[in-house]
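Here is an idea for our session: we take a single protein and study its fold together. To get us started, please write out a protein record for me. Start from the sequence, derive the backbone structure tokens from it, and show both lines together. Go ahead whenever you are ready, and we will take it from there:
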Amino acid sequence: MDPNSLTLDTIILQAKQRSDLVNSNFVTDPEWTNYINAAYLELYDLLVTVYEDYFTVLPPPIFTFTGLTSHYPLPANFYKLMGVDISLAAHISGPTDAWITLGKYNFADRNKYVYGNTPTTYLGVLNLRYRIIGNMIRFIPLPSGSQSFRLWYIPVLAPLVLSTDVPVTPGQWTDYIIVDAAIRAMQKEESDVSVLMAQKAALVVRINGASTNRDEGMPDTISDVQRMNRAYGSYGSDGPNGGM
């Protein structure tokens, strides 16, 4: 059977088989669904961590600053943020799709964004930072003009509900869901889960190992970063310093 087409019903059956509970009513099908969705979310989080952009919303949604407001609601399906870009179109002549990556707000530098700094410096964005507060994204200091920003983010995982629902995670890792759900059911039954725990640990090792060579032709490398000398948005006489 194609692992990329396993439905919720099939996953429940395989989890029952793995835990030797096929003919048992000790764990009901609604409970199995809950166990499977808990395992599904756990796998999703693991894959988000190691694969980073596997579930990224594409194209990234673009929002526009309105007036001088600093707070904007996040998308309804927002789960984890990957990065924020800001448009340069309002500040320089050139292509309308010119973007600069914004840095994250650093609480230790909180006063640098307000006193003694202007919201617009080189290209209008080097002093601007973002932070996530609740279900809002906030820009500091207050934006000074009309610009657009786009969010690269990972969406909320929709649970498996219908018997025909298929996980969005790669089929080769569906066994993680099956094993973890079987562990949860057997723990309710107070059975020994040591063998299944070992299988789950081996799957985690495989997932983490696969992330390091997902693109054999172009492995991940460390990105160059820099921090402006003395304050954000200004070069010192000795040029930019390393580190953020």
Residues 29-51 form the longest helix (23 residues). The chain has two domains: 3-53+168-211, 62-155. Confidence is low (pLDDT under 50) at residues 116-124, 228-244. The first strand starts at residue 62 and ends at 64.
